[in-house]
Amino acid sequence: MGNDERELLDEQIRYYRARAAEYDTTTTPIAAGCAGMARATQSAGMKTELAVGTPLGFGELSVSVPSHLCLFYYDDVELKTKLGFARIGLESEREAVVLFGRRPRLEQIVGYLADEGLDVVGLRASGRLVLVEGAADRQGLLANIAEHLDGLMATGVELIRFLGFIGWEDPTWPTHEELLTFESLVNVAATSYPAVVMCTYKLTEIPGPLLIYGGIETHPLTIIGDTVCENPHYLPPDRYAAARADGLGWLEPGRDQFEGVRISRGASATE
Predict the structure, then answer these.
(1) SS3 of residue 42 by DSSP
(2) Residue 214 falls within a domain, yes or no?
């Protein structure tokens, strides 16, 4: 990672830490008020809960619905501490969980959930734990996801928890440029569903440009450790497309802006 990318990440971390209290439901008056309202109006049903905040399942954090977040993590030891995001959904009959990514990675995550005592076989059979794989282009990715989310909505699911692991270095997946555009367009797609979409970025494997242009610039909310914050570097899809098309030449056929910075094939860079 170059000095510019490192400085931007350091700035982001400082920003998160400075605003951490705003998102801590144990210390923030607004958040505490919302939590109290949720308890007081529990009989009003799931829609009220979604309006005042949905727990992420770790760190006593909550977000509104719909939301699109980026989770930065160091390794799978840390990632496992965040899988409460999926577990809390699988423990509620009103919710469903979608795992998105390369099949080997998804099976690994399913294994982690099984290790926590969840009946993953039964959950997959019932359709409440859904695995969605990649496609050759971003339109295919969006279509695959929409098909499964529409199917869940048809069954009466009230909240969808979506956990993404993009196959950045998988040759059967789109190019980096297409995947970055896809990440930005998820912000548009997510508004059509009662969903919390959490994309994961592994800091030790994904190159710096992808961490910035993908992880930081395409997600309205970001998570480092147990802190979730509004992202000051987020670019809405229309601004993102214009800025990055001009700056990186995505629209030039055959041009790979990230060639030379990808990590070796020896370790597949996945989210």
Answers:
(1) helix
(2) yes
| Helices assigned H by DSSP within the chain | 3-18, 29-40, 46-52, 76-80, 84-90, 103-115, 120-126, 138-154, 176-190, 208-210, 237-248
Let me know if residue 153 belongs to a domain. Answer: yes
CATH number at residue 197: 3.40.50.300
Any domain includes 234: yes
pLDDT, tens only, 148-191: 999 999 999 999 999 999 999 999 999 998 999 999 999 999 99
- What are the DSSP E strand ranges found in 181-220? 195-202
CA distance 163 to 141: 14
In this prediction the pTM is: 0.76
Is residue 178 in some structural domain? Answer: yes
Q: For the chain, how many structural domains are there in total?
A: 1
Asked whether residue 205 carries a pLDDT value surpassing 60, the answer given is yes
